[in-house]
Design a protein that fits this description.
Distance between the termini: 23 Å
Number of strands: 6
Helix content: 25-40%
Strand order of the largest sheet: 1-2-3
Structural class: alpha/beta
Largest sheet: 3 strands, antiparallel
Length: 97
């Protein structure tokens, strides 16, 4: 990936990749740019990934969301899917997943 300004990167396929590490700022950027896909971490500082996802769904933003996290308890997986995630993948993961 090629690093650009403001947490923006361009991958080798020329897709824009935006990175945000805080839940509140992630919400603001998501609402601003309307991405095609979200990879959302559960343990974000401030608002966690579950709260971010619930707010997105409440605002009728139905972008596909993959929760990617080390939190592998079944309760966390269920909470992510109930919050509106399209899939929930725990780290570390196998490429076959």
């Amino acid at each position: 990936m090629t690093k650009a300004r403001n947490g923006r990167m361009i991958d080798r396929h020329q897709r824009l990749v935006l990175i945000e590490g805080l839940g509140d700022r992630a919400l603001a950027r998501i609402n601003e740019i309307k991405p095609d896909l979200l990879i959302l971490h559960v343990m974000l500082p401030g608002k966690d990934g579950f709260a971010v996802l619930r707010e997105l769904r409440a605002a009728a933003l139905f972008v596909p969301v993959l929760m990617l996290t080390a939190r592998s308890d079944i309760g966390d997986r269920v909470a992510g899917l109930k919050a509106g995630a399209d899939d929930y993948l725990t780290k570390p993961f196998a490429m076959e997943e």
